[in-house]
Write a structure and sequence with these properties.
Layout (H helix, E strand, L loop, with lengths): L1 H5 L5 H9 L3 H4 L10 H13 L14 H15 L7
Helix pairs in contact: 2-4
């Protein structure tokens, strides 16, 4: 769903990360290689780079939201419009 919400705003590499980050059989087990194009393999590199920051990157100490908030506000403003339709 998120892919469809942001597909007109984010770079293609980010869209691949969003769509395929949970497709472990492809990016961790290296299955279905015979179905992939060269472009698929190139974009899969971005998914693999993102994976360490995904589900298993939880830290026992919560981050300081006040420190992080300006960084993420700037990042969101760079790629997304002020109003986005869900």
């Amino acid at each position: 769903y998120l892919y469809h919400v942001v597909k007109d705003y984010l770079p293609e590499e980010a869209l691949w990360m969003i769509r395929y980050h949970s497709c472990y059989v492809v990016h961790r087990e290296n299955e279905y290689q015979h179905l992939m194009t060269d472009k698929d393999r190139e974009m899969l590199k971005w998914v693999k780079l993102f994976n360490p920051y995904d589900l298993y990157s939880k830290n026992p100490t919560p981050p300081d939201r006040k420190i992080l908030k300006p960084y993420y506000e700037e990042l969101v403003a760079k790629y997304l419009p002020a109003t986005i339709q869900f």
